[in-house]
Amino acid sequence: MVMPSSSPAELAASLDRQLASVPLQERLRIVAGLDGRAVFTTSLGIEDQVITAAIGLGRFPIDVSTLETGRLFKETVDLIAETEERFGIAIKRFYPKPDDIDAYAAKFGLNGFYESVEARHACCHVRKLVPLAEALSGARFWITGLRRSQSGNRAATPFAEYDAERDLIKVNPLADWSLDDINAYVEAESVPTNPLHKKGYPSIGCEPCTRAIKPGEPERAGRWWWENDEKRECGLHVPEAATSLVPTPA
Ligand code: SF4
């Protein structure tokens, strides 16, 4: 049983144990019932569509937000409106600051992210991390669609953990779901999904940084494929220290 008066780290540990034994809908119901605002950030990927569907169908008081980076596929942007209509919810868009984009372009070039890891992290910082901080402002719980089987980097994903850097509790209600579980839910609930998934894109981010994968490749092999680091991420789900090349936006 979650103790509301616990420290954030104790609450996260307790929540982690409690969520392990219940299904998705109950996981969301428990988090929605705790004191404090819960925010789910969706990339409109298939995992996130499952969570959005569960929130919409359960009518849970959880904010659904997305980071509109300005470099998304048209299919992704179209899916935002389709999802809102399907589940009768409002998805709040968070955009990068125009001044940050200008400063990035002046320093690295608009597509400078292909040239170095530093430039790539800097782009993700201004287009994703800064808007994410805005989306999570004032939240006590951050719900994500991370799954353990997505990549080796995510293999130890807990159901709940205290994010000391952001001072909130990160909740991963699909941590133990397989891709087969995801597909079965999508089928059962007629969840709208990005048409790019059927064209070889299991993981979809910004258009210039995502390619289709080949048969047998890991799910996230099409993300920032030109980089050699097996653990490449955009910085949303790794500590800031791990992306220390990220400059402070102008
Ligand atoms: S995924 Fe690519 S385009 Fe999108 S924010 Fe990161 S570097 Fe920029």
Automatic annotation (TrEMBL):
Enzyme class: oxidoreductase
Comment on bound cofactor: Binds 1 [4Fe-4S] cluster per subunit.
Catalytically driven reaction(s): [thioredoxin]-disulfide + sulfite + AMP + 2 H(+) = adenosine 5'-phosphosulfate + [thioredoxin]-dithiol
Pathway: Sulfur metabolism; hydrogen sulfide biosynthesis; sulfite from sulfate
EC number: 1.8.4.10
Catalytic site: C234 (nucleophile)
Family annotation (InterPro entries): APS_reductase, PAPS/APS_Rdtase, PAPS_reduct_dom, Rossmann-like_a/b/a_fold
Localisation per UniProt entry: Cytoplasm
Signal peptide positions on this chain: none
Gene3D superfamilies, alphabetized: HUPs
One GO molecular-function entry: phosphoadenylyl-sulfate reductase (thioredoxin) activity
Protein's name according to its UniProt entry: Adenosine 5'-phosphosulfate reductase
Organism the protein comes from: Rhizobium rhizophilum
Gene symbol of the encoding locus: cysH
